[in-house]
Specification:
It is built from 1 helix and 12 strands. It is mainly beta.
Length: 160
């Protein structure tokens, strides 16, 4: 009887631990003192059979999700489809207080980034913290058509 109860406990434990109430494996929370983050963006997307460009306003949002520690944003660079640097969006590092956010906007009329635009965001901290959420938000309207969507940044490893 004890073996049956133990196995029932184990099966319930694994069922609960694998449920959606926990972070997904690719969203595991790992504390960090800094990262380089690649953020996909689109200054335009294509529509129709003729691949007509649909221009978009791009916002990159950086959110310090650590409730106790500040982080320092050291780089926000905007690149075009072929990987060439278009703009350095910050001159000096910016400190984000706990739960503070900052954003940078690429106007809809600026189509230089193309459909493969991206940002590189670098941040650091003196202490181990929850890594920030970095997203790009794209939105555009033409005639009576509206489009909006987001892309989430991905931490990358860079050679020093």
């Amino acid at each position: 009887m004890r073996k049956i109860c133990f196995f029932m406990f184990l099966s319930m434990f694994f069922a609960v631990s694998n449920s959606s109430t926990f972070a997904y494996a690719d969203e595991a929370m790992i504390l960090s003192k800094g990262q380089t983050i690649y953020v996909p963006a689109y200054s335009h997307i294509y529509s129709g059979d003729r691949e007509r460009p649909f221009l978009l306003t791009v916002t990159v949002s950086i959110r310090n999700i650590d409730p106790k520690q500040p982080i320092k944003i050291t780089t926000v660079d905007y690149y075009e489809t072929q990987g060439n640097l278009l703009k350095k969006l910050m001159e000096t590092p910016v400190t984000l207080k706990p739960l503070e956010s900052i954003r940078y906007v690429i106007p809809e009329k600026d189509k230089a980034g193309g459909s493969g635009a991206n940002f590189i965001v670098e941040w650091k901290s003196d202490k181990l913290v929850n890594p920030p959420i970095v997203e790009s938000i794209m939105i555009g309207t033409q005639s009576q058509q509206g489009v909006s969507f987001t892309s989430r940044g991905q931490a990358i490893i860079t050679a020093e």
